[in-house]
Amino acid sequence: MNIENINVSVYPNSTKIYVNGKLFPIKVAMREIHQYPTVTIENGKRVEYPNEPVTVYDTSGPYTDPDIKIDINKGLPRKRESWIADRDDTEVQPDISSEYGKARRDDKSLDAIRFPMTHKPRKAKEGRRVTQMHYARKGMITPEMEYVAIRENLDNEKRGIKTYITPEFVRDEVAAGRAIIAANINHPEAEPMIIGPAFSVKLNTNIGNSALSSGIEEEVAKAVWSCYWGGDTLMDLSTGNNIHETREWIIRNCPVPVGTVPIYQALEKVNGKVSDLTWEIYRDTLIEQCEQGVDYFTIHAGVLREHALLVGKRLTGCVSRGGSIMTQWCVEHDQESFLYTHFDEICEILNKYDVAVSLGDGMRPGSTHDANDRAQFLELEVLGELTRKAWQHDVQVIIEGPGHVPMNKIRENMDKQVKTCDGAPFYTLGPLTTDIAPAYDHITSAIGAAIISSLGTAMICYVTPKEHLSLPDLNDVRDGVIAYKIAAHAADLCKGFPGANVRDDALSKARYEFRWKDQFNLSLDPEKAKRYYLESRRNAPDADDRFCTMCGPNFCAMRISQDIAGSCSES
Amino acid sequence: MNIENINVSVYPNSTKIYVNGKLFPIKVAMREIHQYPTVTIENGKRVEYPNEPVTVYDTSGPYTDPDIKIDINKGLPRKRESWIADRDDTEVQPDISSEYGKARRDDKSLDAIRFPMTHKPRKAKEGRRVTQMHYARKGMITPEMEYVAIRENLDNEKRGIKTYITPEFVRDEVAAGRAIIAANINHPEAEPMIIGPAFSVKLNTNIGNSALSSGIEEEVAKAVWSCYWGGDTLMDLSTGNNIHETREWIIRNCPVPVGTVPIYQALEKVNGKVSDLTWEIYRDTLIEQCEQGVDYFTIHAGVLREHALLVGKRLTGCVSRGGSIMTQWCVEHDQESFLYTHFDEICEILNKYDVAVSLGDGMRPGSTHDANDRAQFLELEVLGELTRKAWQHDVQVIIEGPGHVPMNKIRENMDKQVKTCDGAPFYTLGPLTTDIAPAYDHITSAIGAAIISSLGTAMICYVTPKEHLSLPDLNDVRDGVIAYKIAAHAADLCKGFPGANVRDDALSKARYEFRWKDQFNLSLDPEKAKRYYLESRRNAPDADDRFCTMCGPNFCAMRISQDIAGSCSES
Question: Which of A68, B181, B291, B538 is the most buried (most CB within 10 A)?
Answer without folding.
Answer: B181
